[in-house]
């Protein structure tokens, strides 16, 4: 699969942004007890590393990595240029916030939320790159749902296993964050499912119109992967239910299996997304 670097890149960056969003929510709860703020550092470091790795992997798709600098010439007209710019400033803001936390043990109040917002804008640009192509299976709002859905799902899974708000005095706050994460995951899966009839109708109408995208045959590939799509949706729904039950009842086994199924389903969804040949 020649799109493997893009699969890894998009999932890693979206996972990083998801972590930044949930870390921002956790930071609000931790602000009441200063000594708990240092617990945010492992998550911030992980978000930086994951996002940085994703950005490095993305250059492998270019064949000649130094060509990445050429993509910055058309920020006013190119979604790719905008995506590179916002990915860079997102990682810069998150990296600076993490560095200050490491050195001074302080959290700059507005920098982490700013990084999260920049990351969300970057995901919008990333989605627009594919939605504005001539590939039929990408040119639909379902692309935004899948990309932003990955942000929410991967961010929720990450925050479930990061050592955040672990102090006894923060038990209620952590439970509130985890329950919110469960609601986010279930809502994402439900919204994605509700969008599928419209997406399938769009693909059916595109097929009847005789639109051909060369050298790719996305509709044919999409049809061939129907079994894998059904399997992926099954994993996603089951994972969301297990994750939600585990988060709500603080059950470890439900969280473990739910998290694994959710991550696997996101990988499969992205594999299907890029399987257009």
TrEMBL record:
One of its GO terms (molecular function) is dimethyl sulfoxide reductase activity. The chain crosses the membrane at residues 6-28, 40-64, 84-103, 110-132, 144-164, 176-195, 230-248, 255-276. Keywords: Membrane, Oxidoreductase, Transmembrane, Transmembrane helix. Its EC number is 1.8.5.3. It comes from the Bacteria. It holds the Pfam family DmsC. GO terms for cellular component: dimethyl sulfoxide reductase complex; plasma membrane. GO terms for biological process: anaerobic electron transport chain. This is Dimethyl sulfoxide reductase anchor subunit.
